[in-house]
User: What shape does this take?
Amino acid sequence: MTDNLKKIILILAILVLIMGVILIVLLTKQRSELEGQDEVLEEVEIPSEIDESEISKKISIVNSENEFFTMQNILENYLLYIKAENVDAVYNMLDENYIKQNNIDNTNVITQMKSKINSYDDSFELKQAYYRDSTNTAIYYLYGTIAKNNNIQDFYTKIYLDRSNNAYSIFLINKEQYEQYISENLKEDTTKEILQNQYNKFKMTTLSQEEIANKYFNDYIYLAASNSQKAYELLQEDYKKSKFQTIDKYKKYLEERKDVIDSLNTKGIKTVDDFNSIEEYTSYINNLILKGIRQYKFENTNNGKQCICIDSYDNYYIFNITSPMQYTVILDTYTIDLPEFTEQYNNSTNEKKVQLNISKFFAAINNSDYEYAYSKLDETYKQNNFATLESFENYIKQNFFEQNKVSVGNAQKQNDIYLYDATIEDASGKNNNKITKTFVMQLKEGTDFVMSFSAN
Assistant: This one.
């Protein structure tokens, strides 16, 4: 072996040794890094199960109409059992803790309940509903009103719902307790077990959109018929300021529309007990004409949703809903410019705009809003035919129906003036006569217009 070959072999051996050392170092480092990762993973705390007490602290408003009216149905049934003095039902629907705290038994349960609910007459309305949720138990905090002969009593309760047993129990509370619960100032036991019996089985109510629309409509109509102050408070603020600056003006509006409101008030139907004889009651029923919603539509808004209802007389009711039965209402589409109706108007042809304005004019008359209708008359026409608002109002009352239904026929255009023939019928169906009028209209800026009609 030559010296050169020996040198080459030595160099190769050294290189192999160096590479081996490097490989060992790299493997050692990789193992160390992997072991370090294992240590980090072991140190990461695995989230524990959700803390039941944290869930139970959360109070939320009930946003589902089905859930809301399920609670109303439970309480309606309970109040009916009290009225019927059904001891077993009333006792078995009560919460066991409430029974213990108030020393209730089968001999005194009806007396105790009637001492707290002394004005029930088949009319209960749930107004607010909050809930506290947990894994197996939900607690509902409920505020409603009980009515009898137009006297209204506030009613506050809790309902415990045991999902495992599909059962509920009722716990009566007062206003102060209710306010403390919904502001989360009172603690609650959310591990409650409720045994099911024949009276406390839980079943969720499922309502159609039409049924929900009727809930809002009937609620407002009932208050308009029985409690003008409460109904006035439900009016949307801007609308109220524009149309009914005082409650006296609103009361006058209700009085002028009393027959219409009574015909829409399904909750106000009298019973045989309200009459001196069965003959009087029979006569009342035979002459009873009930109307209701002809059309409805729901739309989502930034603050909740909107329900637009049109009754049998073509009157509008626009409910702005923030949560079930929490709403404000607007009673026409012309007093203030509503975005959805302004958009429809702006996207219409001039001919369609004229028809919409004629409908507004008659909507105002049907609402006894003679000021609005009078303000839309052409100034010269007004001076020649109705120099005062009073004369115009008298003419309308003598020549039109209380509730008018208008259909527009032949149309002509003369420069910027539109002429329309219209047929007016009695929307209530009481009168079969028809009125024909020719309407003359000029469109102005935005949604404004002036008009006249044949007054002979």
